[in-house]
Hints:
The chain is mainly alpha-helical. It has one domain. Helices cover 80% and strands 2% of the residues. It has a two-stranded antiparallel ribbon with strand order 1-2.
Amino acid sequence: xxxxxxxxPLHILLVHAVVVFVPITAxxxxxxxxxxxxxxxxxLLTPILGLFSLIVVYIAQLAGEWLLLRVGQTxxxxxxxxxxxxLLPWAWALAAAAIAPWLWHRFSIGTALAARIGTTGTKVAxxxxxxxxxFVCGAAVxxxxxxxxxxxxxxxxxxxxxTPVAR
Length: 167
């Protein structure tokens, strides 16, 4: 498959969607877990964002692999590519973290769990789930930042001078 649009590599365009949607998904997921009013207002948007982020990350990774075969391999590009491979598992985890709270509250799983294991067990399970979701949200955002930094350095280091060049 050709991952180019109008002569430009699709990876470069998709990266912008990843950089925007993964943090937004993480923020909405964290809000949905921690703030009931936000969860009610966000509704189905959070799980949709989770799935969209997963799809965008997957396509960006495919387009990046396509681009890697067409550019010269440097240590910086290899580092960026290696980091990029690590984002897809976090995107899966983020999608699950975005969907799980919606399902939890939509189908009153917490109430059913409390009836089975008691209120104390439910509180412990809920606290562990909240910590896990917040960890996934934070880790996904950190991963995007690290990958983006490595990609920017691979492209711009040695090319861009922050001080004006004397003419």
